[in-house]
Amino acid sequence: MVTLTEVCFLLDARGAVLWSDSSSDPSALPDSRDRWTAIWAHRDALAEVAHSHPRGPLAFSATDLSTMDALDAALGRPLGYAVVTPENLLRRRADGTTLIEEHEPAWVALLRGASGLEAR
After folding, report:
1. How far apart are CA 50 and CA 3, in angstroms?
2. Which of 15, 60, 101, 118 is the most exposed place for a label (fewest CB within 10 A)?
3. pLDDT, tens digit, for every residue of 7-52?
4. Peptide bond preceding 57 in cis form (omega within 30 of 0)
5. Number of domains in the chain
Protein backbone atom coordinates (compact mmCIF):
# COMPACT_ATOMS: atom_id res chain seq x y z
CA MET A 1 0.00 0.00 0.00
CA VAL A 2 1.35 3.41 -1.01
CA THR A 3 1.34 6.20 1.54
CA LEU A 4 0.18 9.56 0.23
CA THR A 5 1.89 12.66 1.57
CA GLU A 6 1.92 16.36 0.74
CA VAL A 7 5.31 17.43 -0.64
CA CYS A 8 6.83 20.86 -1.33
CA PHE A 9 9.52 21.68 -3.91
CA LEU A 10 11.44 24.94 -4.16
CA LEU A 11 12.36 25.38 -7.84
CA ASP A 12 14.70 27.58 -9.82
CA ALA A 13 13.79 29.13 -13.19
CA ARG A 14 14.91 26.00 -15.09
CA GLY A 15 12.77 23.74 -12.90
CA ALA A 16 15.63 22.29 -10.88
CA VAL A 17 14.67 21.32 -7.34
CA LEU A 18 16.59 23.52 -4.91
CA TRP A 19 15.06 21.99 -1.77
CA SER A 20 12.15 19.78 -0.76
CA ASP A 21 10.24 18.63 2.26
CA SER A 22 7.13 16.65 3.05
CA SER A 23 4.60 15.96 5.73
CA SER A 24 3.11 12.72 6.97
CA ASP A 25 -0.35 13.99 5.98
CA PRO A 26 -1.82 13.87 2.46
CA SER A 27 -3.96 16.93 3.17
CA ALA A 28 -1.61 19.35 4.93
CA LEU A 29 1.94 20.62 4.93
CA PRO A 30 2.45 22.33 8.28
CA ASP A 31 4.50 25.48 8.45
CA SER A 32 8.19 24.71 8.88
CA ARG A 33 11.11 26.79 10.08
CA ASP A 34 13.39 24.65 7.90
CA ARG A 35 11.30 25.54 4.82
CA TRP A 36 11.44 29.26 5.58
CA THR A 37 15.21 28.99 6.13
CA ALA A 38 15.58 27.21 2.78
CA ILE A 39 13.44 29.84 1.04
CA TRP A 40 15.66 32.58 2.42
CA ALA A 41 18.87 30.70 1.62
CA HIS A 42 17.75 30.15 -2.00
CA ARG A 43 15.97 33.50 -2.41
CA ASP A 44 18.12 34.69 -5.32
CA ALA A 45 17.57 31.53 -7.39
CA LEU A 46 14.04 30.74 -6.21
CA ALA A 47 11.47 31.09 -9.01
CA GLU A 48 8.59 28.82 -8.01
CA VAL A 49 7.16 27.03 -5.01
CA ALA A 50 5.24 23.87 -5.85
CA HIS A 51 3.37 21.47 -3.62
CA SER A 52 1.12 18.48 -4.03
CA HIS A 53 -2.50 17.95 -3.14
CA PRO A 54 -2.52 14.13 -3.34
CA ARG A 55 -6.27 13.98 -2.70
CA GLY A 56 -7.08 17.29 -4.40
CA PRO A 57 -8.43 19.81 -4.88
CA LEU A 58 -6.93 21.41 -7.96
CA ALA A 59 -6.94 24.81 -6.29
CA PHE A 60 -4.90 27.03 -4.03
CA SER A 61 -6.34 26.91 -0.50
CA ALA A 62 -6.86 30.02 1.62
CA THR A 63 -3.71 29.03 3.53
CA ASP A 64 -1.82 28.64 0.25
CA LEU A 65 -2.93 32.10 -0.90
CA SER A 66 -1.94 33.83 2.34
CA THR A 67 1.43 32.05 2.33
CA MET A 68 2.00 33.06 -1.31
CA ASP A 69 1.27 36.70 -0.43
CA ALA A 70 3.63 36.52 2.56
CA LEU A 71 6.43 35.02 0.45
CA ASP A 72 6.09 37.63 -2.27
CA ALA A 73 6.13 40.41 0.35
CA ALA A 74 9.14 38.94 2.18
CA LEU A 75 11.15 38.52 -1.02
CA GLY A 76 10.05 41.81 -2.54
CA ARG A 77 9.05 40.15 -5.82
CA PRO A 78 6.38 37.74 -7.02
CA LEU A 79 7.18 34.07 -7.38
CA GLY A 80 5.42 31.40 -9.37
CA TYR A 81 3.34 28.85 -7.48
CA ALA A 82 2.00 25.42 -8.35
CA VAL A 83 -0.36 22.77 -7.04
CA VAL A 84 0.05 19.23 -8.37
CA THR A 85 -2.81 16.73 -8.11
CA PRO A 86 -2.93 13.15 -9.40
CA GLU A 87 -4.24 14.42 -12.74
CA ASN A 88 -3.26 18.06 -13.22
CA LEU A 89 -0.85 20.92 -12.63
CA LEU A 90 -2.29 24.29 -11.61
CA ARG A 91 0.12 27.22 -11.80
CA ARG A 92 0.02 30.85 -10.81
CA ARG A 93 2.78 32.57 -12.70
CA ALA A 94 4.74 35.49 -11.30
CA ASP A 95 2.62 37.82 -13.47
CA GLY A 96 -0.53 36.60 -11.67
CA THR A 97 -1.86 34.44 -14.51
CA THR A 98 -3.39 31.21 -13.19
CA LEU A 99 -3.82 28.23 -15.52
CA ILE A 100 -3.93 24.46 -15.78
CA GLU A 101 -0.81 23.41 -17.69
CA GLU A 102 -1.22 21.03 -20.62
CA HIS A 103 2.51 20.30 -20.88
CA GLU A 104 4.04 19.45 -17.54
CA PRO A 105 7.71 20.03 -16.74
CA ALA A 106 9.82 17.07 -15.59
CA TRP A 107 9.71 18.08 -11.92
CA VAL A 108 5.97 17.35 -11.80
CA ALA A 109 6.59 13.60 -12.18
CA LEU A 110 9.19 13.80 -9.39
CA LEU A 111 6.73 15.61 -7.12
CA ARG A 112 3.99 13.08 -7.84
CA GLY A 113 6.38 10.23 -7.10
CA ALA A 114 7.54 11.79 -3.83
CA SER A 115 3.87 12.27 -2.88
CA GLY A 116 3.07 8.58 -3.42
CA LEU A 117 1.09 9.23 -6.59
CA GLU A 118 1.34 7.12 -9.72
CA ALA A 119 2.94 8.64 -12.79
CA ARG A 120 0.49 10.10 -15.25
Report:
1. 20
2. 118
3. 999 999 999 999 999 998 888 888 899 999 999 999 999 999 999 9
4. yes
5. 1
